[in-house]
Amino acid sequence: MRSIISLMGVNPADDKLHRFETSWLFSPFVLAILRGLISLYCFVTFIVMFAWQGTHGDNLSSRRSFSYFTNLTFWGVAFYFLVASIHTFLYARTGRSVLFDKWPRWLRALHSLFYSTVTCFPFVVLIVYWALLYTGPWYPVQFDAWTNISQHAMPPFFSLFEIIFSTAPPPPPLHIAFLILILALYVGLAYITYATQGFYVYSFLDPGEGGKDRGLVAAYAFGVLAGLIVIFGVVWLLSWLRVRLVSSKRIKFATKGGDVEVWDARRGGLDEDIEINLAERK
């Protein structure tokens, strides 16, 4: 069991490095603020969107919103950055980590998987929407333009923020299996939506009358699957490059007396300076 959890991105050797709560550029407190601002923007977007739809006679769109992969991904981004911001703030405030000092290892593994979903799925949304679904012309209503940019264009930049500026390790290869499973479960949800509400959330999922377009639907599905695998590989590569490029940067670890700059180890081990500074928390 422990070996499986380690394959999920929770290596005991990394516990003291606090990779999900530190940045090679920002102090833990600044990182917490930036993550909190991203989360705030996402939640404000939802509030404004639901309020607008409710006051403009479009409650149906609000009720159907949870059937769309775009919205589910955006909710995931909002909650990830909220949780990550809270963890990072508590770490910056107390010098101790709720994520690594108090949570059981299986919850840390789930947090690592959550990170992988947030750094991969927004790119799937970006490509599928702008390449397959958007046909133009540009939205005549500014509100529609803003919501679509917020949900279909901005999340990948939030993902890049995590990939580039955090010290999180490259996503474990095992995560791709879970990402594929999540995507498959969503396809099931899409067809449950059709069975219960009578509409296809995305036109390319419609097999046509008598199932004549089933082959085309399968082609789209495998195309999206292939895209996800490529995206995961690119995210892994970018994360690996960041680790290599910033391995000699000073990482600010939080202590009760304030942030302390220490050298990050290239291969995830702890050098003597890190051990000395982390010992100050005891």
From TrEMBL:
GO terms for cellular component: endomembrane system; membrane. Keywords: Membrane, Transmembrane, Transmembrane helix. Pfam families: Far-17a_AIG1. The chain crosses the membrane at residues 25-52, 72-92, 113-132, 176-197, 217-241. It comes from the Eukaryota. It is found in: Endomembrane system. Its main location: membrane. It is a multi-pass membrane protein. This is FAR-17a/AIG1-like protein.
